[in-house]
Amino acid sequence: MSNTKTDVELAKYVDEAKSDAAHAFDFLKKSGTLAASLIFNIAHKIPDRDLLLTVGFPPPWSRNNELNIGLSKFSDHPESVLNEPRLEADTFIHAHTPYLAAWSLAHKPFPILYVAAQRHLLAREIPNHLERKRAVLDIIRERLNNHPELAPPPGILESNGGANFWGSGITKTAQLILLIEESAKFQAIAEQIGGAKVYTPGALEVQWSRTGLWEKSKAYAG
């Protein structure tokens, strides 16, 4: 009886996660956040279980609009960044977005200079994954170990490609993707009038106070 109840709860959770994934893809597509190729793939760790749910979306040229759903043991994915507890993440999303892709092509980290994105993040930049022969998990752990003064980043640019993002929950992680891509777009436009500038004194305190991150921010120097 208990196993039946557990199976029903799992099925319900998976259905809700699939619905969140479809909703995230829809609002990222409609907002123009995703590139024309619509590359968007999700891996989500199911809480309190050794299970990883994956959701893949078909490219725009596909005649088949069905989602590609997978369920596997999380322990079979030691390379996943979701294994790094300092990231406090249960969701990993690989996506291609136009303006962040431009930064990845330039082989530069992306500095977040737009308050709509920054107020939800303590990290001040998105690093660039230049050593593509090294796993994302290794690159992120090295950064966390070598730079404890910097807040953990919410993602990493994939040099000459898209980007990988992580966070808590499918919908919230997708929301961050939208805001970070929007930041990259506006900062690109700002280049035409002298470039985006760093925050004025007190601006970060105001923004982080709105989302309860101000006190937490004091643990980091940059």
Description of the structure:
This protein is α+β, with helices and mostly antiparallel strands and about 220 residues long. It has a single domain, classed as Class II aldolase/adducin N-terminal domain (L-fuculose-1-phosphate Aldolase, 3-Layer(aba) Sandwich), CATH 3.40.225.10. Helices cover about 40% and strands about 15% of the residues. It has a seven-stranded mixed beta sheet, sandwiched between helices. It has a two-stranded antiparallel sheet with strand order 5-6. Helix 4 links the parallel strand 7 and strand 8. Helix 2 packs across helix 5. The protein is globular and about 60 Å long. The termini are far apart. The mean pLDDT is about 95.
Q: What topology emerges from the helices and strands here?
A:
Layout: H1 2-30, E1 40-46, E2 51-56, E3 68-72, E4 91-95, H2 98-105, E5 110-111, H3 115-118, E6 125-126, E7 128-129, H4 136-146, E8 155-158, E9 163-167, H5 170-190, H6 203-210, H7 214-217
Parallel strand pairs: 7-8
Antiparallel strand pairs: 1-2, 1-4, 2-3, 4-9, 5-6, 8-9
What's a concise summary of this model?
The protein is an alpha+beta fold and 222 residues long.
